[in-house]
Each structure stands twice: as structure tokens, then as C-alpha cells.
Amino acid sequence: MSKPHVLIICQTASVPPENAVELAAAEQGAGLWRPVHDVRTTLRAHGYRVTTLGIDDELAPIRRSIQLGKPDLVFNLVEAFMGVGAYDQHVASYLELLRIPYTGCGPRGLTLARDKALSKKILAYHRIRVPAFQTFPMGRRLKRRASLAFPLIVKSLSEDASYGISKASLVTNDEKLRERVDFIHETIGTDAIVERFIDGRELYSSVLGNRRRTVFPTWELTITGRSEGEPLIATEKAKFDVGYQTRKGVFHQPAEGLPPELEKRISRLGRRICRVLDLDGYARVDYRLGEDGELYFIEANPNPDITSDAEFAASAALAGVDYPRLLSRIIRLGQQRRPAHEPLEGSD
After folding, report:
1. Domain boundary among 180, 196, 212
2. What is the extent of the structural domain holding 72?
3. Which of 114, 118, 164 has its CA nearest to residue 283?
4. pLDDT for 328-343, tens place per residue?
């Protein structure tokens, strides 16, 4: 049986060069196109016919590519639309309307997870522990609730990948809080969410599946070059600046020394969170393990980085699912996606 024809869609800037010479010349921009390159190269090497489409601010090219190329499935690697991260949900909705199978999370899950405050409210209702938080919309007067105690960490309400997070995001007084919220509003261009900072370990749980979900081994961010007493913060530099990672000893690796019962709890929580937030396909759930031993949900990331050496693929490989098999399973999940009109599963 022949492998399906796959159409990869992504932002135009993320379309990788096709030949080795262009790859070498474009190496400085590899961070943008590595996920697409790894997916495309691996699928082609395993017998899939693959075409790639870059989009920025129009949906019509997707329809034309489907009508002309007649792919069997869309591998959705779009992270933003019209330059807005939260608009990725509209691309998934458009694929739903076109009635073509596609990989990754559906529009409902993208909507719920993208709003960090909304996802926390929903999970708190389901008795899942979240840090105390408050949102600060753009154009509104900033007034911190007295019950929201310092230290606090300030983030964009809707952007992911630690965009806008630096050491200055951790604040200990109202003056610094106001400065950082203003930075999010003016520089990132989104509302801000302010959370109680949980000092402890940064843990990631990778989840694969639609209705029946597999949770891969827990991963962890470590920074060995931190000075004594310096808090662990998953900054934008720690995630994407290779030079900084080398200097500071930033590693993503299997979480060591977790008690077996905590591992089981993280696995159960990953399935439950994805069910409650309607995250299908593949997702990563981020936690902080406080120094008091309590586990806090921080955020859910549908369609996380699928580069061959990123946390999701590395965690899958540790569980015995190599990269080609992982991509094949993601494709099968896209082909098995339930119709949008079907009701959600019952939640806890």
C-alpha cells in the first residue's frame, strides 16, 4: 500500500531550502525552518510524497494547493497567521471546513490552550493545582490584587515558546511589576498574565493521541551555570540562543530522581489535562515542581516543536518511538481525527 501524499503548511519564513548548497548558505536561519526540514526529509526518506506550502496572511493558497495537488493529508506546522500567534486556530478551523485530514490539535484545543488564564481557570475547576495569577489587559489600569504575593513572573497571555520571557520577567515589587507589564503590552503587543513564581524544577510531559493518549517520559530543563540562589527561569534565550545555552549549561534531558508515584501522577495528569482542554494529536504540558514537592500546571502547548532533537521527539525516542515512527503515528492520528460536530468526551 502506497504512503499518503502529505502537504506540509507553515509560515513562509519556515519553508526550508530544497538542496544542500542552499541549506549551507541558510544555516544561520536554521532555527526557523528546522522543524519543517526534519519532517519533510524524514517523510520523504520513508516513502511519503511531500510538498510544502508557506503561508502568511491568506488562506486561499491552502485551498488551491489542495485542489491542484490533491494531498491525502495536511501536516500542519503553522505557528502563527497574519503575524499573530493566536490566529493559528483559524488555520485549523479552515482545514476543518475544507474537510481534509490534518495533523496536530484542532481549533477548540488551540483556543483553550493559547489563553493561559482561561486554561488555568478550567483546570482549577477540575481541581488541578495552578499558581495564583492575575491578568492585565492592554489599556487598563494596573492594580495588583493584595492576595497575589511576590515574587511574581510576568508573561504574555497568549504567546508561547517563552516569547518575551527574560530574567527581568521575575519581579519582586509593584514598580518592577508595572515596568514588565508595560513591556509585554508595548513590545509583545498582547495582554499580560502575572503568576506567583514557583521556585523549583521545570518539567515537561509529552502526550500523543486523540482519544487514547500515550504519555512519554518526563523531561526537564536544567541550567547548570546558574549562580547560587539564582532562580530557574525558562527564558527565551535559554530555549533558543545556542551561544547562551553553551555558556550557561542549558540542557533538556530526562527528569532524574522523580519518585515513581510522582511519575505516575504526571502521566495521569497529562492525559487528564489533554482531555479537559480537548488537546488531540500531540501536545506538551509544562509543570513546575515546587520545593515543597507540589506539582503545578503552568501551561499546555498543542503542536509543540517537532524538530528531531527537540523535547517531544527526544522523550518519544526514550520510550522506544523513533522519529520516523513518531511522524507516522502523528499522521495516522490526523487521518483518524473525529468529525468536528462530534461531542467532546466526558471530563472528570
Report:
1. 196
2. 5-102
3. 114
4. 999 999 999 865 555 4
Q: DSSP per residue over 206-275, as a string?
A: EEEESSSEEEPPPEEEEETTPPTTPPP---HHHHH-HHHHHHHTEEEEE--S--HHHHHHHHHHHHHHHH
Give the integer Cα–Cα distance in Å for 186 and 121. Answer: 26
Of the candidate ranges 105-109, 119-123, 167-171, 234-238, the one whose mean pLDDT is the lowest? 234-238
Sign of the CA dihedral 192, 197, 200, 206? negative
179-194: buried (b, 16+ CB within 10 Å) or exposed (e) per residue? Answer: ebbebbbeebebbbbb
Q: Which residue has the cell 493545582?
A: 129
pLDDT higher at 267 or 31: 267
Cell of 127: 481541581
Find the radius of gyration of the CA atoms of the chain.
Answer: 20
Q: What tens digit of pLDDT does each residue of 151-207 get?
A: 999 999 988 767 889 899 999 999 999 999 999 999 999 999 999 999 999 999 999
d(CA 254, CA 245): 17
Q: Is residue 344 part of a domain?
A: no
